[in-house]
Each structure stands twice: as structure tokens, then as C-alpha cells.
Amino acid sequence: MASNPAGKCCTVGVKHEGTAKGEIKKIGDVRTYFSYPEDKSTQNAVLILTDVIGLDFINAQLIADQFAANGYFAVMPDLFFGNPVPMNPPEGFEIMKWIETDMPKTDKVDPVVEATIKEMRGPLGVQKIGAVGYCFGGKYVCRHLKKGKIEAGYTAHPSFVDAEELEGIEGPLSISAAETDQIFPAPKRHESEAILNKLDVPWQINLFSDVVHGFAVRSDISKPREKFAKEAAFLQAVHWFDEHVKSS
Q1: Hey, how many other C-beta atoms are within 10 angstroms of the C-beta on 180?
Q2: For this structure, is 181 an active site residue?
Q3: Residue 115: how many CA atoms within 13 Å on its side-chain side?
Q4: Across-strand partners of 241?
Q5: Within its chain, how far is the Cα of 166 from the centroid?
């Protein structure tokens, strides 16, 4: 494994304030959040693959809107078929039981990602795609970072990534990591570095102090160091795509 499976830390955090500017429509039968840049262009796009809190989480929608504000058509499918994990779940909720019984497995998630990419490159008129994966979504960025599908990938605090999936990427990959993260701890980060160093693709790993797993989505932005790390991780993704998607 290049990262560990999800745990309780994947379900806790702070809900952010704001009003989503995008809209929810469908690609096939899958609810999908769309957020358009000011000029409504769909040429350059970002496919956002969420953490286990899912599509309807305001933090995820605000992130999609931020990508749109930076000139990218943002597309975010529901990977959990309407059954995500509630943030800060009530006492008694068992994340491991949810993983075993309710979490969609690869044979369910891969077709959603494939269908979304097909729709983006077809009817939606997208020419170049950068893929973003937070926690759970990081696995699927790696799985689909292939020539002809996705131009570049970015993931923050990834989970469930197999070493073979990371070894199989065919495009540039950027990673944001937390100082304290039992899902993507230092040994897994170093393992990932060793794997990436053997590949003939550009790669980047940025490590942020004073934050924990989930910081790029669920940080307490009332705390200056967490706010800085969240914003810097987002800009890391934008700069990566500006280099490897817009200018590729």
C-alpha cells in the first residue's frame, strides 16, 4: 500500500460557511455537481473525486467553485450513490463497519469515473482534464491517471491507494500531505516518494506542518496555520494544473 485505508480521522472536521454557486445535474443516473468559470468555457476542466463526506458537503462544493473561479470547469460526481458518511458522525457510528458494508468498492466507483470522463470529453466539450482526489478520491485519481483520460492529477491526504496503482500512473501527480496523518504517515509518504522517483513523470509532494488528515477540505480555518495550509494546498493544485493542463 502507498497509503492506508480510511479511518475515523476521515470523518471529522469543520463545516465551512458559504453559498455554493454551482448546480447539481446528472451524468447518466449519477448526481453530479457542476461549477462553471466566468466565461462558461469547458475547455480546461477539473474532475473532483471527493472524500467520504461526499458530493453534498458544502466544503466540497465551495472547493469546486474555487476551481471554477480560477478558470476551470469543475465536475464532481457522487461516488457514494447518495450514501456518504456524515461529517462528525454521531456516537456509535463505526467507520470500519461502513467501509465493509456500505462503501462503494472499485467495481462500482470505476464506472462512475469512466462515465464522467467520457461525458466530459464528449458532450461537455472538455479538451483537457486535471483530476483532484481528496482522501478516498485519491485512489481513483491514481487509477485513472492514464494517457488519453486525464492530463494531470492532484491528491491531498490520499487513502486506500495500492502501491501498484501509484506505480501505474502515466501523468504528472502532485500530493499534499499532513504532518500528522495515520492514513498517509511518513513511512507511506516515503514509500510513495520511492515509487514516484522511479517513474518518468513529473511529481511533487508538499508536506504541511500543524495539520492533520483531511486538512485540505475540513480544516478549522479560524486557526491561522490550518487556514494557511488549506489555502496553500488548493493553490498547489491550481499551479499544478496551470502547468500541466492549461499549458500542456
Answers
A1: 13
A2: yes
A3: 16
A4: none
A5: 15
Backbone angles phi, psi at 58, to 5 degrees: -60, -35
The cell for 165 is 496503482
Please list the helix, strand and coil fractions of the chain in percent, rounded to the nearest 5, in that order: 35, 20, 40
- Distance separating alpha carbons of residues 245 and 223, to the nearest angstrom: 32
CA gap 245, 129 in Å, rounded: 7
Q: Are 159 and 141 in contact (CB under 8 A)?
A: no
Q: For residue 227, which of 118, 235, 133 has the smallest C-alpha distance?
A: 235
Cell output for 4: 492506508
Let me know if 210 is a catalytic residue. Answer: no
Active-site pick, 16, 144, 157, 213? 213
Domain chopping of the chain, boundaries: 8-246
- Which of the residues 51, 135, 144, 157 is marked catalytic? 135
Q: Which residue, among 117, 172, 109, has the nearest Cα to 149 in the 3D structure?
A: 117
User: Any catalytic annotation for residue 213?
Assistant: yes
* pLDDT, one tens digit for every residue, the chain (248 residues): 477 777 777 788 998 999 999 999 999 999 999 999 999 999 999 999 999 999 999 999 999 999 999 999 999 999 999 999 988 988 888 888 999 999 999 999 999 999 999 999 999 999 999 999 999 999 999 999 999 999 999 999 999 999 999 999 999 999 999 999 999 999 999 999 999 999 999 999 999 999 999 999 999 999 999 999 999 999 999 999 999 998 55
Out of 51, 65, 78, 181, pick the active-site residue: 181
Architecture of 8-246 per CATH? Answer: 3-Layer(aba) Sandwich (3.40)
- CA dihedral 70→210→60→65, nearest 10 degrees, is -20
